[in-house]
């Protein structure tokens, strides 16, 4: 794979969008400023043993107070688009009740700042920061939270929708459902299948209600959903392992793709766990399966599984299988770019999917500044390899429309706190100094091959 950015850029059509991505809780800080109230992540971060070093989002990258500087940084990278999330606790601080105008004012400034710099605004409405007050009413395990989200979505789009280029309802519901309610790794830290199954359906419902709310306000605004679909590989050719991989696909992917793109949950999943699901009320599946304009894929690493031989193992009854590739990032994730292509091909074979954006892709490498620079060649290689796979997919006819590097800058990496770095820009958390890494300079050179508004064809 060539590392030459110009040669790689030549493999993409002129209207392909190159961008960078962040999330509100990970960068904004200012958690008690201008009327914002706590989210479940504020509470989770401050509980001993939940987040590395008990790190929290109180300061993060201080983006809330450094907005203009950070928008200039994005512009300096030459990218065409910025994917960011909006913090529900800034907009409707208690989840329901009064709207906080100062919160909306901040995102007004953000979107207007992007427009002034010729950068497209790709907003995400929910990136895991549920208002803490809603947790007291059951959070995502309660049906009424889906309707609270509907109102929040309508409020945001009524204010910002005229200047947004695209909007996603949710980011990675797999994380806010399974990782948060079954595996206990993310807020609110539940380890309960019944809670997770309720969160699953009510998150899917909230997505559908959100789509309707967005379209009621701005019928022409492209709306989508961002999914961290898993590229699942069986640990062997053994029939039991192959069957385990199929179950894992239904559990990790099908419970989101099926309702949204087919209007149904996977049969294997319902057979095993349907009796523990909340009531699926008339009209729910129709609401969830409204046609989308696009979908986003967040991809980092493959999932390898084998059959769990334990008697009575809970669906999907799998155990991790060893990696195939020897290369791992600093967070311990296997690097295997071909899995990205495998995943897109499999999903498009199974579902009738709209246009796709790679909404997150990147790698955790923790090298610091030496002589004023950050040589993160492994991250550069990772991004280049995955962009090469994306170009292959375009050549095969798949509707890949854009790529957003994760992340614009080092930030709060959820349960890992600040010890893991994904940015193409280094952040010194003591001084808040931003330093563009080698990967960032390379990505800027790549993005610079596509002048904004000058859509060429190849």
TrEMBL record:
Active site per database record: 360
Reactions mediated catalytically: Hydrolysis of terminal, non-reducing beta-D-glucosyl residues with release of beta-D-glucose
Pfam families: Glyco_hydro_1 (PF00232)
InterPro entries documented for this protein: GH, GH_1_N_CS, Glyco_hydro_1, Glyco_hydro_1_AS, Glyco_hydro_1_beta-glucosidase
GO molecular function annotation: beta-galactosidase activity
Entry's EC annotation: 3.2.1.21
Family of this protein: Belongs to the glycosyl hydrolase 1 family.
PANTHER family: GLYCOSYL HYDROLASE, LP05116P
Protein name: Beta-glucosidase
Lineage: Bacteria, Pseudomonadati, Pseudomonadota, Alphaproteobacteria, Hyphomicrobiales
């Amino acid at each position: 794979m060539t590392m030459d950015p110009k040669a790689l850029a030549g493999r993409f059509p002129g209207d392909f969008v190159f961008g960078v991505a962040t999330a509100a809780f990970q960068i904004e800080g200012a958690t008690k400023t201008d009327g914002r109230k706590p989210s479940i992540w504020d509470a989770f971060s401050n509980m001993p043993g939940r987040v590395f070093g008990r790190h929290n989002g109180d300061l993060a990258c201080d983006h809330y107070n450094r907005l203009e500087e950070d928008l200039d940084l994005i512009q300096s990278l030459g990218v065409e688009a910025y994917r960011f999330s909006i913090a529900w606790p800034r907009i409707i601080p208690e989840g329901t009740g009064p709207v906080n105008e100062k919160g909306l004012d901040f995102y007004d400034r953000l979107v207007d700042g992007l427009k002034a710099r010729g950068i497209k605004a790709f907003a995400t409405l929910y990136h895991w920061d549920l208002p803490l007050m809603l947790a007291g009413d059951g959070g995502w395990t309660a049906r009424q939270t889906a309707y609270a989200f509907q109102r929040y979505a309508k409020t945001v789009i009524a204010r910002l929708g005229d200047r947004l280029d695209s909007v996603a309802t949710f980011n990675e519901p797999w994380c806010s459902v399974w990782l948060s309610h079954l595996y206990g790794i993310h807020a609110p830290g539940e380890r309960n299948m019944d809670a997770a199954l309720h969160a699953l359906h009510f998150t899917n419902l909230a997505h559908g209600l959100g789509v309707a709310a967005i379209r009621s306000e701005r019928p022409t605004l492209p709306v989508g959903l961002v999914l961290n679909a898993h590229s699942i590989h069986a640990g062997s050719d053994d029939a039991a392992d192959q069957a385990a991989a199929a179950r894992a696909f239904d559990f990790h992917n099908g419970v989101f793709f099926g309702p949204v793109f087919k209007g149904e949950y996977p049969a294997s999943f319902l057979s095993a766990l349907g009796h523990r699901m909340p009531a699926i009320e008339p009209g729910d599946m129709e609401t969830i399966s409204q046609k989308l304009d696009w979908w986003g894929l967040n991809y980092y690493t493959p999932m390898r599984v084998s059959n769990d031989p334990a008697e009575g193992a809970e669906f999907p009854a799998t155990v991790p299988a060893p990696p195939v590739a020897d290369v791992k990032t600093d967070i311990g994730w296997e690097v295997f770019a071909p899995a990205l292509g495998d995943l897109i091909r499999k999903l498009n074979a199974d579902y009738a999917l709209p246009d796709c954006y790679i909404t997150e892709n990147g790698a955790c490498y923790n090298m610091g500044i030496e002589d004023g620079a950050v040589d993160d060649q492994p991250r550069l290689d990772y991004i280049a390899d995955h962009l090469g796979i994306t170009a292959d997919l375009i050549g095969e006819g798949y509707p890949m429309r854009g790529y957003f590097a994760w992340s614009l800058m080092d930030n709060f990496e959820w349960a890992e706190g600040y010890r893991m770095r994904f940015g193409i820009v280094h952040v010194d958390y003591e001084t808040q100094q931003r330093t563009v890494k080698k990967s960032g300079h390379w990505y800027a050179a790549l993005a610079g091959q596509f002048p904004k508004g000058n859509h060429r064809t190849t």
